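Hello forum,

I keep getting stuck at the same step: I have a sequence, I want structure tokens, and every attempt I make locally crashes halfway through. Rather than fight my setup again tonight, could one of you with a working pipeline run this one for me? It's a single chain of 225 residues.
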Amino acid sequence: VMASMLSQHELDYFIHVQACGTYPYYAQKLWRDHDVKLVWGEEDAEVLKNTVDFISFSYYNSKVVAKDESQYDTSAGNLLRGLRNPYVEYTQYDYPIDPEGLRYILNYLYDHFGKPLLIAENGIGQQETLKEVNGVLTVEDDDRINYLSKHIKAVEEAVEDGVDVLGYLAWGPIDCVSAASAEITKRYGFVYVDRQQDGSGSLKRYRKKSFEWYRKVIASNGESL
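Reply #2:
Ran it on my machine without issues. Output:
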């Protein structure tokens, strides 16, 4: 429990400053441990009081920690990596798939900071290939549909919990280079772009199966999942 709390402090540090207008209490120990000495003026405290109106964040996966992490295997993740969670499924890139974690963090952030929340990114990166279906080139990305459907449902559950969620954005509409791994072949979009890792490809775009599915999600404001 303590390991989880300390790891969460790392994530909360900047959110606390921006949402509360002060440094969190544990910052003092953090600065001491890393021999950090702030140059602090009287006007700095006033500047910090200009807090954000809402908190936006990206969510791709949850993270698991332990007191002695050497006893456990690790998993991958988008920037934040943790220990392998045996109770969740994993993507092709070994990211934990944890929609319940999204509901949890929405509740956690709203409980701790009391600000409206915006999910700026949520998605799944997959290696995909075009195939012809009924005479049309497409990608049958059912894994993406399943992933997004469960995470949007988790957002709905958080709203029912009472969390003020301003909106949800999927990453991303069109295949692009993944910032986490510098791969064009790690595809997130609803639209397939004909570009390969070696730079080859026509750059033509093809609607994936998820394209029409997400169009209906938007049109129904999440009612059609």
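The first strand starts at residue 55 and ends at 58. If your local run keeps crashing, start a new thread with the error log.
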